[in-house]
TrEMBL record:
Cofactor: Zn(2+)
Organism of origin: Thermodesulfobacterium commune DSM 2178
Protein name (record): M18 family aminopeptidase
Family statement: Belongs to the peptidase M18 family.
Molecular function, one GO term: aminopeptidase activity
Keyword Protease: yes
A Pfam family hit: Peptidase_M18
Amino acid sequence: MARKKGSSKKNSEFLEGLVWKPKHVFDVLKEEEKKQVEDLSKEYIEFLSQAKTERETIERALTLLEKKGFFDKESKKGWVVYKNKLLFAWNFGKKKITEGLRIVVSHIDTPRLDLKLHPLFEDTELVFLKTHYYGGIKKYHWVAQPLSLHGVVAKKDGSLVKIVLGEKEDDPVFTICDLLPHLSRKVQAEKKLSEAIVGEKLNVLFGGLPLEELEEEKELKERVKLNCLKLLYQTYGIREEDFVSAELYIVPAGRAREVGIDKAFIGGYGQDDRICAFTSLKAFLEVEQPEYTNVLLFMDREEIGSEGNTSAKSRVFERFVYELIKKQGLSPTPDVFFEVMANTKAISADVTAGIDPNYVEVHDKLNDAKMGFGIAVNRYTGHGGKYMANEAHAEFLAELLKSWDEDGVVYQVVSMGKVDEGGGGTVAKYFASYGMDVVDAGPPLLSMHSPFEVAHKADLFMCYRAYKSFFSR
């Protein structure tokens, strides 16, 4: 029997429709949308360049919230800041709070070097600052780089001194000196990469000029350290004892930049996870009247396991939800709280690893995230055997992806690396413990946890669009 004309073509189209085909964002966007990508990228570069600590990120967020009318008199929308490192912002929806919240939570801490409690020391007429690294870093990334000093000093008189030094064009910068190759054979070159730079030697070069001696003060010791202390007191009014009640961080100096001859990428410090903080904040502010009550959360301490009272393990989140329950005239009982939680849906907005062709041996190319292919949805995280992970339920994932299809969100559903290569964790499991549905979703990065992480502009845009879609439904 002769085959009808066109049946072969229809069969081919049918079969092609059965196959999953990832889409590059720029193959989907219209010309006006590509202009939106560039506008968003410029805004993000400015945000990333100025928000290098948790406190600075909160300050930038509050400026934008206030411009949009938070707090209003009826408390339909507002925000609470806890310890200057946790932000809880809400916008009441049309539906009752007992029908659930829509939460997007990101973390705003990043790997860095913290100054020790007693950081200043002098050796051979050079002054250094001792550091203790925070979070998962490769120590060799931090040597022979221009660095800046950010943070606050809490003085006993109750005042708070803010310090940002090394960012302006005429500011001095700091650095951690590396050993020259001529002398490093035994000390570094013959060691494993993880052992070549020792954590205790991540000492920051801070000063080198001695205090000018007066005639009657010829016996002064550690004159370079004294000169540094004199400059600190003259500039900021702080003494050496004030370091014990300070939060001072060493971070890379300089602005975020466009990367690539085609300017396809954005490079800069702290994109894990401030890229999600920025895009979720922008999306949150643009949804004026949501169906469900929207909650934007910035949390701290994720990079060290979410420990402490500003982290996802802290129960202050419960306190803020109880306050929302009371604002709606409901009884703030555990029964009402867990009814809200059971109906809540959340996105743990966090980054994942993009496939790097230079290190393809650690990636599963079929399942890992590609740069420029949209927001990456990690159904589960953790490590070998899915330990320490949250895993999103199939029904929630299908519902979320259907809404993103309808709203023009380009996404990819991914894992992070081959099964036995390692893995990572997020805050998702802590929120899942309340009974809510939660999934990890954010952009892929290259050089993650380095001083210069790289994101694709297309993925930045799709994160913003995905979070806005989620807040709108």
